[in-house]
Amino acid sequence: MTSINAMKKKLSQLEAEKAAIIAKVSETARKNADARKYALGGALLKLAATDPRAYEVLKQAWAMGQKDKPRAFEDAIIPTQVKTRQQGDIK
């Protein structure tokens, strides 16, 4: 009888360890996804300051639901107007 109780106790410990590992992996995966979104959003913000097409893409992304916005969009201010390049500047 004691060996059954010992096995149940060990199984319970293993289940707890398994749950802790799964939680850690999930947290790491979420952080990695957030980092990718933040990097993409930051790059787009830099481009939007000088490129009208990037600005339009940024406006579309900003118009998306709050849940889907990369954190970089929340941390930054969209420029109200982007300077358009003159045709002489485009080669």
DSSP strand count = 0
Rounded Rg: 24 Å
Helix content: over 70%
The helix count comes to 3
- How many distinct domains? 1
Distance between the termini: 84 Å
Oligomer classification: single chain
> What do the pLDDT scores average to?
72
Runs with pLDDT <50, length 5+? 84-91
Strand content: under 5%
Largest sheet: none
- Structural class comes to mainly alpha
Shape: rod-shaped
Helix/strand order: HHH
Organism: Acidovorax temperans
Protein name: Mobilization protein
Coiled coil: 4-31
Keywords: Coiled coil
Provide a descriptive summary of the structure in words.
It is a single chain. With 91 residues, the protein is mainly alpha-helical. The chain has one domain. It has three helices and no strands. It has helices at residues 2-48, 52-63, 71-75. Helix 1 crosses helix 2. 7% of the residues are buried.
Question: Which descriptors would you attach to this protein?
Answer:
disordered C terminus, Mobilization protein, coiled coil
Describe the structure concisely.
Residues 4-31 form a coiled coil. With 91 residues, the protein is mainly α.
Spell out the blueprint of helices and strands:
Elements: H1 2-48, H2 52-63, H3 71-75
Helix pairs in contact: 1-2
